[in-house]
Amino acid sequence: MAIDGGIGLELNLTGKCAVVTGASKGIGLATARAFLQEGARVAICARDRAELETAAAELAALGDVFALPVDATDADAVEAFAQAVAERWGGIDCWVNNVGASIARAGETYTPAEVAATVAVCFNSAVFGCQSACRRMKATGGAIVNVSSLAARCGTAGRSTLYGPLKAAVQQLSAMFAAEYAAYGIRVNAVLPGFTLTPAVRRTIPAPELTRRVEGTLLRRPARPEEIADPIVFLCSGRATYITAASLEVSGGSSVVLNPSYSYERREKER
After folding, report:
1. Could you give the number of structural domains in the chain?
2. Whose CA, among 102, 178, 186, 210, lies 20 to 30 Å from 267?
């Protein structure tokens, strides 16, 4: 990373071990890439083996990468992955819980199976990741970032009725783990991405609808995955050692004011 004038901002991540779940694409893949660019070693996991292998091959050009197919909703699988990483590199310094999905209901109401699936992927995955990470970090300290969502503050009814409430729960979960493990030098924070051009967004949200959504954003555009990844990596770094139990919204100023077009209209008048 660099600040104005090209002066390097050392994040003190060289040689550190970072884990990123759900890292085969989108924000997770961008986060893994950003860690590697800062000199960290990176372990990634995802459920889809083929997508994971493609991501690992791309990332290997940047540094030391370890990849395993893992279902992040399976506590035993997450624990086994954490143990494999710790044995490979001697410990875990950073852990990013990036797994989550908005599961659409088939009918007017959610079935018990749909509720269970949504809770598992959006909330349980973060619980299991935090637990496995904290077990390895108690002796040495470390940093955990849970990827929540703008939907935690400003949900979308209909398509993702359960997604927003569960992502809000991930925020609260982050604060609770931060409180429980502060004495061990473990920091836990949450990042709330706004509308981001991930493969899932491109697949599920029609372009006209996405345009309407970002009209309520001060920056008037969706984020690139890299714009979410950099704050995540920063929160794990040596430049964020006094930040814990915090929630960082990275939404381009979404739903902040009732008239987000004001500055653009004023600029046009001044031309």
Report:
1. 1
2. 210
